[in-house]
Design brief:
Layout (H helix, E strand, L loop, with lengths): L3 E7 L7 H9 L4 E4 L6 H11 L8 H16 L2 E4 L6 H14 L6 E6 L7 H6 L20 E6 L4 H8 L4 E3 L7 H11 L6 H14 L26 E5 L4 E5 L9 H9 L8 E2 L4 E3 L4 E6 L2 E5 L2 E3 L4 E21 L3 H18 L6 E7 L13 H5 L3 E10 L2 H5 L8 H4 L5 E2 L7 E12 L6 E6 L2
Length: 455
């Protein structure tokens, strides 16, 4: 029975390259997929591209390829990534430069265009698409003139076309995280377009790998103290056949693969275990099984699949105003009481300035900024806190309104309760990008697969 070995090389934009380089060298891989995108990442990249037409993609991917592409080519490891972001062609151009600098002529780079639908909004409105918010909130007419980007989540079809064209590296924009892994499995094993269960198995393979170290003992809630050599954390690898799915990792690296670590990742961001919707299929893991079959080897079974939907998710980023976040630290004694007093002073000043804010958050880091209403607020505990950091954040529609709080924070070091320490530098106004998730008809999206050969 043919087996495909695929590794998860990145969990997010800014992740470490170490595990990816190690698994290319020692993991016995056929493929490695690297996920760089999150919901609002594309909005950030869109803003970068506006400032610099050559920017707008995950440059980290270039650094990774520079470290591992020679080994990958020597070992026959093909690499896929959604690092193209909002400027796929610029990313591909730089990858070509890396290939040439390594003397790797004749290699092929595949890339997919068409997920950026920012310029297609008016056309789709004319076609009757209403862009209803998935969460059932808001009015699209209020944000349609503030759109920063609009990118559709798509599936395996254009990626498989690039694989069929013998691409050594494939770059996409907003392909779904899981389809970066599913596509090679479908291609290598000939999984049919309507084989919903094996497609779902491939989807969940990707889901188990797409977060990098989180699937191999990183961010491990069950037993983080027991994770060996976390300073040399390995990332998960899947061994996939039509009969079996084994999650493991490369030899001679840290981390662990256990039933518990795989369970945490399997359930991560799954709203309904019986109906995990992706562009490729609907996965049902309500009867999934995880079995330890060896050291750092977990067998995954019981995954079922259902027919895919007729719609695709469109993630729209839009300008949602401005924000300022600023902090002051206070030390024992009476740290919390001092921080409260400082917050009260700031709010009185903002009232005099007639601040018009959409939202104001006052948090006390070290006390209740994470646990909120369930934090331990017993007076004896609060009284003895070693330190507290006051964090005040405001969100406004107008940039001038956001600027009102900035000059009032630093003076509290001498003009407020004792012991205040201003850190992090003078606060700056930042743009707020809102997220508008919606569904559009599958047939309104036109994706193209492209291949270039390095000369």
């Amino acid at each position: 029975m043919k087996k495909v070995i695929i590794g998860g090389g990145q969990g997010f934009w800014g992740d470490s390259n170490d595990a990816a380089v190690h698994m290319v060298k020692h993991g016995g891989l056929d493929y490695m997929a690297c996920d760089y995108l999150a919901e609002l990442t594309l909005s950030i990249m869109a803003r970068q591209k506006l400032r610099n037409p050559q920017a707008g993609y995950a440059r980290d991917f270039l650094g990774l390829l520079n470290e591992c592409i020679t080994d990958a080519q020597d070992k026959g490891v093909r690499i896929l990534s959604n690092a193209g972001g909002m400027n796929i062609e610029a990313c591909v151009k730089e990858i070509g430069s890396i290939f040439r600098s390594k003397g790797l002529s004749g290699r092929k780079i595949g890339y997919v265009l068409g997920d950026d639908m920012t310029g297609e909004i008016d056309r789709m409105i004319a076609e009757g698409i209403t862009f209803d918010n998935i969460d059932g909130v808001g009015d699209f007419n209020e944000i349609k003139d503030k759109i920063v980007n609009a990118n559709v989540y798509y599936g395996h079809e254009p990626i498989i076309e690039c694989l069929s064209g013998d691409a050594d590296v494939i770059v996409t924009g907003r392909a779904t995280d899981s389809t970066l892994f599913l596509s090679p499995l479908m291609y290598e094993l000939g999984i049919k377009e309507d084989d919903w269960t094996n497609i779902a198995r491939g989807i969940m393979t990707g889901h188990l790998l797409e977060c990098g170290g989180q699937g191999a003992g990183g961010n491990f809630d069950y037993g983080w103290r027991d994770v060996p050599d976390m300073d040399n954390l390995g990332f998960p690898i899947a061994e996939f056949s039509m009969n079996d799915l084994i999650i493991t990792k490369a030899p001679n690296c840290g981390g662990l693969i256990t039933e518990q670590s795989c369970k945490e990742q399997l359930l991560y961001e799954i709203h309904n275990p019986a109906s995990y919707v992706t562009p490729d299929a609907i996965a049902d893991i309500s009867k999934a099984t995880l079995t330890q079959v060896g050291k750092d080897r977990v067998a995954v079974g019981g995954i079922q699949g259902k027919k895919r939907t007729d719609t695709l998710k469109l993630s729209i980023g839009y300008h949602a105003g401005y924000k300022v976040s600023t902090m002051l630290s206070f030390a024992w004694p009476d740290a919390y009481e001092k921080a409260q007093k400082a917050a009260d002073i700031l709010m009185k000043k903002m009232k005099r300035k007639n601040l018009k804010a959409e939202d104001i958050r006052i948090d006390y880091i070290g006390l209740n900024s994470l646990h909120l209403g369930v934090a331990n607020m017993d007076p004896s505990h609060v009284k003895d806190l070693n330190e507290v950091v006051l964090r005040v954040a405001i969100r406004t529609k107008d940039k001038h309104e956001a600027e009102k709080i900035i000059p009032e924070v630093a003076p509290l070091q001498l003009n407020g309760p004792p012991g205040a320490s201003f850190f992090g530098g003078r606060a700056k106004v930042q743009e707020v990008i809102g997220l508008w998730p919606t569904l559009i008809p599958r047939d309104s999206v036109k994706l193209t697969s492209n291949i270039i050969t390095i000369e």
